[in-house]
Structure formats: structure tokens, C-alpha cells
Design brief:
MetI-like fold; 12 helices; 2 domains; 330 residues; mainly alpha
Length: 330
């Protein structure tokens, strides 16, 4: 009778182990793990609810006294008892939108290079890791880099545009210590890994037959990418943009260092401004009894905006995943 080698014996033992009927201990472990996952999911929901309740409770004195007028006033002068969040709200949205525009262009370009065989495999892996490493850099380091490199680099350009095209509102202010443009550029680099990674996955998920069919019909490489692959993966790309936008809205330290922290409204991209997160970070430590509810009110507004953006992004990603899953089955 031929002898079985050790590898075959191990395989047979593993098959026998898997094929056996589950014991009471197996049922207990399975049930315990299931309840544990339910508990973790419920705990996550409970934490969000508790955070919302706590912030809303602490902001209630300002909500009941100021109402919605706090979001429409532009003057922030605690010494005179004036509190207005409009410049911070506008600065938060504008800086995040500008950063999103720059990061989307760069992130989509990186995703195309990584998924459409423009680089050798080794170089593609190196580029992917470099982009992913950008997410590991602390926010304060980005802020220092923006102060020492980006702001001095943009200042001559701002002065040139202000001298030649100062009659145009977006160039009407020269760049000082801080401004919207350097803050938006640094913020774009900070959200670049999120947009690049999700866009890369969306492009890679497009079925190869779609690309082959377009090429077979006579389309060029770039016609296939721009006219077929990107529209097919548009849901995932839009989801990446929304999640990147949500990430940009909550950024604090870098913008507090780069925006200039001035509560003014200006059309110029070089003018100093403020954001909700920077306003809270810069004022909460020295805040008096009248200012604290207003700052928490600002935190509640920022929290609701961020939650809404992330919920929309998650829904878009789920819808895209269902569409791509249906396309694969077909």
C-alpha cells in the first residue's frame, strides 16, 4: 500500500476538521462574535449621538439667544459683545472647495497614471506609496511647510497680479502673512491621498472588456480614458471628491497657521480669512462665559456640515459599488 506524504496527510486532516459538524463551543464562539460586532456597531452609533447631544446642549444658550442670526453676522469682537460666524463659514467652504478643485485634478491624474499602465509596475508601486505617505504627515508640519515654503513662493506672484490686475476682485489684495491661496494649496495636498486612493480603486474596478471594446472600435488611448473609463467610474470619483471635501472641512491646525485668522469677507484669493475650526482653536482657551456657547455653536455647524458631506459621500460610494457589481455579473 503506497504511503501518503506529510502534505497530503495534513490536507486530509484539514478537510476532515472543516467537514465535521460544529460543536456547542463553535456555536458559542460564533454567537459571541456576532453579538460583539453588533455591540461595536451600536457603540459607534451611540458615540455619534452622544457627541451631537453634548455639543447641541452646550450650544443651546447661544442657539436660544442668537438663533440663526449668528450665521449671518460678520463682526466678531468678543470685547464689544459682537459675535458673527459668517466670515468663518464662508472661509471654511471656500478654502475647502478650492482645495477640492486642485486635489481632484492632481488625484485623478495620479489615479490614471497608476491604473492605465503609464508606468512600469515598480515605479507605480513607489508612486502609490509616496502618495499614501502624504496622509501620515502631521497637520502642524503641513502648516510649518506652508509658512516657510508656499507663502513666500506665492507672495511675488500675488504682488505681480495685484499690480497688473488689481482691478479684478480676486487679485485685489497682495499676500501678507497668511491668505486663502496658500491655505487652499496646502489643504489640497492634505486631502490628495484620499481622492487619489478612492479614484484609483474606482478606475481599477472598471471591467477590462469595456476598455477593450472602446479600443476595438477605434478609439485612441486617451479617448478611451476620458470618454469611457472615467465616465464609467464617475460615481466612485464623485464619492472620492465628497469624502475629500469632508476631510478638508474639518482641518484645523494647518489652516489656523496659514489663513491669517482675520474675520473679514473678501473676494481676493490672497486676502486673509478664517475658518470655523481655526476660530474655535484660536479662541477657546481664552474664551469667556459669553464666548464659549458661540464657539460651541460654531462647532455644531461644522459638525453638521461634515456629517452631511460624509453621509452623501458614503451613499454615492455604495451606489457605485452596486452598479459595478451588477456590471461584473453581466
Amino acid at each position: 500500500m503506497p504511503r501518503l506524504d506529510e502534505s497530503k496527510i495534513a490536507v486530509m486532516a484539514a478537510v476532515k476538521q472543516v467537514a465535521r459538524a460544529p460543536t456547542k463551543l463553535d456555536y458559542l464562539v460564533d454567537r459571541s462574535l456576532r453579538y460583539f460586532t453588533y455591540g461595536v456597531a451600536g457603540l459607534s452609533i451611540a458615540i455619534v449621538v452622544v457627541i451631537l447631544y453634548t455639543v447641541f446642549r452646550d450650544a443651546w444658550p447661544s442657539i436660544s439667544q442668537d438663533g440663526l442670526s449668528l450665521m449671518t453676522k460678520s463682526n466678531w469682537d468678543p470685547n464689544q459683545g459682537h459675535f458673527g460666524l459668517q466670515p468663518a463659514i464662508v472661509g471654511t467652504l471656500v478654502s475647502s472647495l478650492l482645495a477640492l478643485l486642485v486635489a481632484t485634478v492632481l488625484g485623478l491624474a495620479i489615479a490614471i497614471v497608476l491604473t492605465q499602465d503609464f508606468l512600469p509596475q515598480q515605479l507605480a508601486v513607489i508612486l502609490k506609496n509616496i502618495v499614501d505617505l502624504l496622509a501620515a504627515i502631521p497637520s502642524v508640519v503641513y502648516g510649518l511647510w506652508g509658512l516657510s515654503a508656499i507663502t513666500p513662493l506665492l507672495r511675488p506672484l500675488a504682488e505681480f497680479l495685484n499690480a497688473r490686475l488689481g482691478w479684478i476682485p480676486i487679485f485685489s489684495t497682495p499676500l501678507g502673512v497668511g491668505g486663502l491661496a496658500p491655505a487652499a494649496l496646502v489643504l489640497a495636498i492634505m486631502i490628495l491621498p484620499t481622492i487619489a486612493a478612492i479614484s484609483r480603486d474606482a478606475l481599477a474596478a472598471v471591467h477590462p472588456r469595456i476598455k477593450e471594446a472602446a479600443l476595438g472600435l477605434g478609439a485612441t488611448r486617451w479617448e478611451t480614458i476620458l470618454g469611457v473609463i472615467i465616465p464609467t467610474a464617475s460615481g466612485g470619483i464623485i464619492g472620492a471628491m465628497i469624502l475629500g471635501f469632508g476631510r478638508a472641512l474639518g482641518e484645523t491646525m494647518a489652516l489656523a497657521m496659514l489663513m491669517g485668522n482675520r474675520n473679514d469677507l473678501s473676494w481676493s484669493i490672497f486676502a486673509p480669512g478664517n475658518t470655523l475650526a481655526a476660530l474655535i482653536a484660536n479662541n477657546y482657551k481664552e474664551a469667556g462665559r459669553d464666548m464659549i456657547p458661540r464657539l460651541i455653536y460654531a462647532a455644531l455647524i461644522l459638525l453638521l456640515i461634515t456629517l452631511l458631506v460624509n453621509i452623501v459621500g458614503t451613499l454615492v460610494l455604495q451606489r457605485t459599488a452596486r452598479k459595478l457589481g451588477g456590471a461584473r455579473k453581466q
